[in-house]
Design a protein that fits this description.
The radius of gyration is 13 Å and the shape is globular. The chain contains three helices and two strands. The N and C termini lie far apart (29 Å). By secondary structure, the protein is of the alpha+beta class.
Length: 69
């Protein structure tokens, strides 16, 4: 189980490196992170379900790369 802080950290990490990735690489990262997106047109709401392991792995990998610099 992951917590909201881990999700926030992973998404902020994506903001930092997203600009450095090609469009194709960004797509692969999104596929790693996002399991499902549901849209409720009647209420105008979007729900995003993340791959729990994908978010954690992405956050850990970014943290490792940041520490190496």
């Amino acid at each position: 189980m992951i917590n909201h802080g881990e999700v926030a950290d992973a998404l902020s990490a994506f903001d930092l490196i997203g600009a450095a990735l090609s469009t194709q690489e960004q797509g692969r990262v999104i596929q790693l992170l996002v399991e499902r997106v549901d849209y409720d047109g009647k209420n105008g709401k979007v729900a995003v379900t993340f791959h729990p392991a994908g978010i954690k792995a992405f956050g850990e990998e970014f943290e490792t790369q940041r520490e190496e610099k």
